[in-house]
Structures are given as structure tokens and as C-alpha cells.
Amino acid sequence: MLVLGHTIAFAQASSEPFPPAASVKQLMLDLIYPSSNDLLLAIYRGGPKDETEWAAVRRSALTLAESGSMLMMSGRARDSAGWMKDAKLLVDAGNAAYTATQAKDVKALSAVAGAVDASCTTCHKQYRPNVYPKDGGVK
Fold first, then answer.
1. Residue 5 domain flag
2. Is CB count within 10 Å lower at the N or C end of the chain?
3. How far out from the chain centre does Cα 7 lie?
């Protein structure tokens, strides 16, 4: 009977949402910003040159895709409209980059640069106006 009680308690506990381990700021500083920089730098340098570079860019792409999903989690999402749409842009850009890295397709990877940049810029214009003013000018 004691074991059954623990099993029921575990089943109930596992259906509860997991608390986030990081804030939005931490995700940006420790995952999204470095991953987007690494990905864009590889693109602007002409694409990965060897298996080690492809693996690093693939990890960055996957990190961006998954980070977009993490931004949509309860407790992180700022609203249910613009925030979710902007985070989905990051997911889509990360997934496109990941697909390109799996195929080791430099041309497809290069085509993702604009989407990665746009996902960041679109969100920051709306949610970080002190960093990126809506009119695009320098503050």
C-alpha cells in the first residue's frame, strides 16, 4: 500500500509544469545571443568548413529553435499575441538553420541569416524599445 501511495503521488507530481531554471534575460545572455552570433558568424564567413564547425553550428541552430519554445513557456511569455508570434519566428529560423546544417547545405544555411536577424529585431523592437527603438534609430 505504501508503494502504491508513492506511485500515485509521483504520477500527480509529474503532471505539474516544471519551473523554469532560467529567466528570459538568462536565456538571452547564455543561450540565444551566443547561439545567434555563432550561427551568423559562420554564415558570414562562408559557412562551416569541416565537421567540427558543422557540429557547432548545428548545436547553435538547435539551441535557437528550442530557446524559442522556452520563451513561450508560462512564466516567460509576456503576452499571448506578439510575444508568441515573435518567439515562433525564432523557432522557425532555428529549425530552418538546423535542417540546413543536417544537410550540410551552405546555401540553405546562408538563406536563414535574414530570418534569424528578423526574429531578433522584430521582438526587440516591441519588447526592448530601450535597446532597439521602434523607429530603428539610435536612442
1. no
2. N
3. 35
For the record, the C-alpha cell of 68 comes out as 524559442
Q: How far apart are CA 139 and CA 118, in angstroms?
A: 20
Which CATH number goes with the domain that contains 41?
A: 1.20.120
In the DSSP assignment, the letter for residue 68 is: H
pTM passes above 0.90? no
Cell of 33: 545571443
Q: Is residue 134 part of a domain?
A: no
Q: Shortest CA distance to 121 belongs to which of 60, 112, 129, 65? A: 129
Cell reading at 74: 508560462
Range of the domain at 33: 22-127
- Could you give the count of Cα atoms lying within 13 Å of 73 in the half-sphere of its Cβ? 17
Report yes or no on 14 lying in a domain.
no
% of the chain beyond a pLDDT of 70? 82
Taking the C-alpha atoms of residue 130 and residue 89, their distance in angstroms, rounded to an integer, is 21
Residue-by-residue DSSP string for 54-84: HHHHHHHHHHHHHHHHHHTSTTT-S-SSHHH
In a domain, 137, yes or no: no
How many domains does one find in the chain?
A: 1
